[in-house]
Amino acid sequence: MIKKIPAVAAGLLSVAIIGSAIAHESENPAVKARTSIMQLYAFNLGTLGGMAKGEVEYDSEAATRAANNLVVLTQIDQSAMWPAGSDNASDPSTRALPAIWENFPDVSAKGQAMAEAAVAMQAAAGQDVDALKAAMGDLGGSCSACHKAYRAPKD
After folding, report:
1. Spatial contact of 94 and 87, defined as CB atoms under 8 Å apart
2. How many CB atoms lie within 10 A of CB 93?
3. Do 66 and 136 contact (CB within 8 A), yes or no?
4. What domains, with CATH codes, occur in the chain?
5. Which pLDDT band, with edges at 50, 70 and 90, does 26 fall under?
6. Known binder of ligand: residue 47?
7. Is position 147 annotated in a ligand binding site?
8. Which among 135, 76, 80, 79 is positioned nearest to 107, based on CA atoms?
9. Most CB contacts within 10 A, which of 46, 96, 98, 115?
């Protein structure tokens, strides 16, 4: 009986590994792509936000680089990343609410507002910390506007 325990454990481990691999393969690439973009937004916004809050020392080069990155990110055509059936009702790995697909013109307008706020940040980021702080309100507000309306809260 004791000799069977390692074999049973190995079998269960194999099932767990295979199941994990299958689950990983079935992950929606569109959801993965847009999640990656959101992480890049967050990384660059974190740099700017840290400077605006005084959590990190203002660095004009780093601020400009982060703002430039945000402008580029807002120019990526994300239309293929939002296929029908990739909301949180269909895929529990995303917090995207079905309302996105019900009101896509509003989502697009909010995306355009973010792009405009990113361009304003690009102009302000390298000037000084006060200019960065002033631009941060509109930029952060553009993110919040979309997330409040179209992203489910964390569990």
Report:
1. yes
2. 13
3. no
4. 28-150 (1.20.120.10)
5. very low
6. no
7. yes
8. 79
9. 96
